[in-house]
Design a protein that fits this description.
With about 270 residues, the protein is an alpha/beta fold. It is built from 11 helices and 7 strands. The protein has one domain: Rossmann fold. It is globular and about 60 Å long. This is Alpha/beta hydrolase. One of its GO terms (molecular function) is hydrolase activity.
Length: about 270
Amino acid sequence: MGYEDTGEGRPASGGTLVLVHGHPFDRTMWAPQLRTFGERLRVVVPDLRGYGETTVVPGTTPLETFARDIAALLDHLGVRRATLCGLSMGGQIVMEFHRLFPGRVAGLVLADTFAQGETPEGHAERNARADTLLREGMAGYAHSVLDSMITPANVRELPEVAGHVLRMMLRTSPEGAAAALRGRAERPDYTPTLPRIAVPALVVVGRDDAFTPVADARYLHERIPGAGLAVIEGAGHLPNLERPAEFDRALAGLLATVAARETAEDVTNS
């Protein structure tokens, strides 16, 4: 499993933040957040199974497998509790992690994602796309969705960001991406778990997200007790790359809330 850990080799304070990338990307999609937060707290950034430097396992990779992989990595690193931040598919993996291991979650950030289960149409579409990736590779898909992953305006105005997004997609293994698509086609409805989230939570979405619109973010926000909502202007599906300063400001607010709560609990238990 490929990963970065800013706590390796030095003491880390202020808790642990785990950043979970989306499809079809890798851990480098969190480069701005690693720069912002890596010096102030422990940040763990994994490549998911089938992506980046992590082993490719063809077939079907359910969200539960991704979540258990992250739990195993945290066990390996000696991390008991963490704030988890996931974007798109990563957000669904974070919801699955919370379903499986609620006691290990100190805070949740759900970015540009949605909770509802797959529809019959979506099930067929994801499996058909997996077949296409295995047959044709990543290039055609990557070029066709670039201006949906980030806004068309940002493709033009932020060429370095657009280039980074395109490179991540092009270097992703078709077998790994297809396995994830087949797993997501089988995903459950996380709506019933949302009212049970009892830790600080933040929902983030790009104002112009073509895949998970603001309505999906409001759906999450309305069902998670006490959750915050940040709508990032001038961003699409990847606001952490398109508008990193605004994304990081919202994330920093959530992390401050988590830290204050953890401190209060420590005082109460001491």
